[in-house]
Amino acid sequence: MTSFFISICKDSLFNLFILYKIIYNFAKNIPLPLSQNFTNHIRIPENNDWVIFILLGCIFLYVFMMNIIERDANLRDFLLQKYFDASNNLPSWIITSCVTTLSLSVLLSQYIPIVPKYVADLQVGGYQLNKFGYTLIAVVFFYVTKSALGFLFYQSIGDGKKWSIFYFTSTKFYFVISFLLIILCITHYYFPIDRYKIFSYYLLFFSFVFIFKVCFYLFHKNNILPEKWYYKFLYICTLQIAPLLLLWKLLFF
């Protein structure tokens, strides 16, 4: 009985070996398809979680400003309040500037060609700046320099008291612009648009905003610009046009 069972096992193993050789010789003569002939139709979506985190942080800053700093003021009261009736103007200006800087950096970071080599070579703890980080630093440098020069400008012409009225009024303007930038960021990152075709529309939008801002400063009832016309001309040329040209050079050249 045992010898019969062993004989059956030997015959089975021999048959399996013969079958293996047949399959092996058959497969060896057929070339396998190259992997490059296959097309991968799976699309890996771009991860834009960092965008929504930044925008949520901007909205949180505004909620904090309206509820704590502005003491539960509604949007209409905040935009229409008068200078002498307002309080905590400096913190509101700082928060509005931070939100505008962050939202503008998120939008522009996708269009800068490269991070300059002298910036990319600066590594801290093995990390280096990406396009968003470089854009954020450039925009922060732009706003800080522009604000510092604006303060010095008002002090040098002997009109320092107008500086606080100026940044109070500009806060309202940038508050509205920052909401438009947040909407543009959401549209840019989460809707199917052609980013390169729409860039020309962004240029038209920012050109219109710049012209409107100059007119807003010139004709505002708070008279935030100096009285004399040549001081107004000097302010527009040196503190509005020149910083924008510098920012354009830093980002796109």
Biggest sheet details: none
* End-to-end CA span: 90 Å
SS field, number of helical segments:
9
- Helix proportion range: over 70%
Radius of gyration: 32 Å
Beta-strand residue percentage: under 5%
Strand tally is 0
Describe the structure.
By secondary structure, the protein is mainly α. Helix content is 71%, strand content 0%. The protein is built from nine helices and no strands. It has helices at 2-28, 49-69, 75-80, 89-108, 117-120, 131-156, 161-190, 199-219, 229-252. It is globular and about 45 Å long. It starts with a helix and ends with a helix. Residues 1-6 and 32-45 have low confidence and may be disordered.
List keywords for this structure.
about 250 residues, mainly alpha, 9 helices
